[in-house]
Design goal:
This protein is α+β, with helices and mostly antiparallel strands and 162 residues long. It has one domain (25-147): Hotdog Thioesterase (Thiol Ester Dehydrase, Chain A, Roll). It contains three helices and six strands; from the N terminus they run ααββαββββ.
Length: 162
């Protein structure tokens, strides 16, 4: 009887593409975002995202441990951008309600769904819950651009400037 040992290989040693689910959707946007401050994607599908924001000490706004709403908005915005999942997606407008306060230690679960797609425009509905309490709801309007927003020629710029 031969002695066979199974070796555990790390990701670099594996041919990952062989094992990857061919239907898996990969994130194409916001690749350098701070996941500690903006949340981590739990589920990514075409036009749909589930994102989890674990509130941290850095997010506290006052002595009662209230989390500043800007962090809630940032996570919701990231969820919306990920739901669109185009490399050059830009937020152009939002209508948001902060429905209940969030405190240090809370975990906010966001769901973002693309509800309307017309040409380069996308409308995304985002909700955020702490347990069963809805703490956030918003509509995000985005545009998908051909180039990065900082590389676009804006009106009023002289030719030759980029």
């Amino acid at each position: 009887m031969s002695d066979k040992r199974e070796e555990i290989l790390d990701d670099e040693e594996l041919e990952i593409d062989e094992y990857r689910n061919k239907n898996e959707v990969l994130l194409k946007t916001h690749e350098n975002i701070n996941l500690d401050l903006c949340g981590e994607i739990e589920k990514l599908e075409n036009g749909y995202v589930e994102l989890k924001l674990v509130t941290t000490h850095e997010m506290i706004a006052d002595s009662k441990y209230l989390i500043h709403s800007g962090f809630i908005f940032s996570a919701a915005d990231f969820a919306a951008m990920a739901a669109v999942n185009e490399r050059n997606v830009v937020l152009v407008a939002s209508d948001c309600q902060f429905l209940s306060p969030v405190k240090f230690g809370d975990i906010v679960n966001f769901i973002a769904k693309v509800r309307h797609k017309e040409g380069r425009k996308r409308n995304i509905h985002v909700t955020g819950h702490v347990l069963d309490i809805k703490v956030f709801e918003g509509e995000f309007k985005t545009v998908v651009t051909e180039r990065h927003v900082l590389k676009l020629k804006l009106s009023g710029e002289e030719d030759g400037e980029e």
